């Protein structure tokens, strides 16, 4: 056993050396490393078989026997390698960008698998000499695409980013769908009886749904456990390594659902929540480790699976080659039917974004098959319940099809991408390139001149080097078409994308310095991504819509307000208020910090006019942000001050840490002292990170006294009133009630403006006023057609019961309210724009609306 183990480990080590050597060879030959790995595996497997059967090479029999008897089977591929590869594939995907193409991905992952399975199965059934079920099972096996070779080529030659995302997204659920169908068909063959189509369809959907649920739940548990690890990067990576195996095995083995879907969904969940859960350095470390694990796994899978090819092709005949050709044609036709038949229908019905024809053609030719297909074919040959004739049929045709896609499609895909010009930069990037390079060369030249003077380089050497930069600058400036190739509108869009992207980077830096909490970080990152996507898709309008959503309360906040008003449950609202305070304050800090970036980096590249327009849009967003902040500051000044002090202390700790790192780099302090200083900073950070206590009732007494209607009331009544009201925050455009709605409360405007619209016109009420009392006094439904907040509002809500009790104790208050209400004069025509339009106008600005950009 020890000898066998040592031989196996030695063979594995030698295979890893081969894998390492293939990488530079693949670049030199301009071939995919995956294709070369498959070729090497086939040569090793065939060579070992030849040596084993030749009497002239007895000295090499042990090495050949080690390769041929390598302890690996279908279960090793499906249980050891598959969860790891699927999880890494989903972990490396940008979920937010992929979400824009979710319909396309779902069609290619599920519909394309079903169409391919049916096309291959029905094309082979009349001529293959095996049952239709066996032919359909072969169709499911060859429907699994392998993106590793394709994506590697795309990234190496700089192919279109969307094309890469589509291929990666397709492959995630593609394997899951194909394996689910394969499992159902394999059960039919081994049980010797068919299943009803409806039963099979229900089983397929249940398997998918079960995998989605299990993967999401386990991933959320892992993400929730990360903060408890105290920032230990090795522990965090170890936890994520356990996740795909737990999700896969629990789902597949115990729940009989799709383990591949579970592993994929787990990876997608971690990918979506990771940047706001892991510290940026930890997140980068995790991705680096997973990249290395995936490289080892995918390389070994291809080599080991390819070593089995000679064994799977034993007894191949000319007729088998004909059948392989039928499989190739049927699978290609099925994929083409989905790409050029179904996707255009989805595009026409607006269910999917447009996929250009060159991208479709590349996806058609890039449907490579690999290790998963071979592993499924191997599992059939190892299953005792499958007839020998079916085993041979599956093994030869699946292996032959894999070889065809690797040796034909894989070797020509690079040329197809370049022929279709999918590796070219977009028109805006081409124009921007010369502009950026020229500016960058200028900055490098100036810094180099300063460095040469500082270090005393000779004048001739300095002039020679700087002259080279001068020549390059002139060449780039002469070729610069930025001003003519890109219009003002496109440049404004580019500026907004740049601004939002930099804002995202600043947020990540603040998160690394522990200036903001994980939940707030998650919300801010999502909205920053939304602003980038909105600007990219719809320009200024899309950016504005996303920026407005950042100021809207979340569903969690709205639910907490409802609990507070209906059941006097204050704890959820306290937490939400603290988070909203932190979100608004951090958004303000980031906007202020970005002003220097706009002047120093954006203006030289995009021009002063475009930067001014972008700055105007951002400034008006800042005005709305300031309005929202003022509403909270007015009510909770103490909390605002404490929150600002804590953030300032955290920024100070970051500066202190940078200073100690600089001293260590300059060898002014030793390693032991440096580590001791950083440990002290960690202790201070832990103390500062304690959540601040938020009192939802803070300042209510003071605000109640500022209402004119309550002037002169006894202190006891004012205190009782303050304890009776509940807090309600409203955003511009929020509807507070509708006409004929049951009157259940009186609303006091502590801050903001509310519009009451009825048949008589529109009435605007502002700070210190109230509404909703007339209906309660008359015991009638709401009279106004609707009440809408036209600005950020802080409202105090008094229930009907508490209002009645207050009037009973102070009869003069009713007369005072009636007298104030009688002075209200609604305008016959609206005196203000609609709330939502007002917000849009404020964000856009008169200059930006009327301007050219």
From TrEMBL:
Its main location: membrane. The keyword RNA-binding does not apply. It comes from the Bacteria. The chain crosses the membrane at residues 76-95, 102-124, 130-151, 202-230, 242-273, 293-314, 321-343, 363-381, 393-417. Gene3D superfamilies: 6.10.140.1330, Jelly Rolls (2.60.120.10). Keywords: Cell membrane, Ion transport, Membrane, Sodium, Sodium transport, Transmembrane, Transmembrane helix, Transport. Residues 709-817 form the Cyclic nucleotide-binding domain. Coiled coil: none annotated. Pfam families: cNMP_binding (PF00027), Na_H_Exchanger (PF00999). It is a multi-pass membrane protein. The keyword Signal does not apply. This is Cation:proton antiporter. It comes from Pseudoroseomonas ludipueritiae.
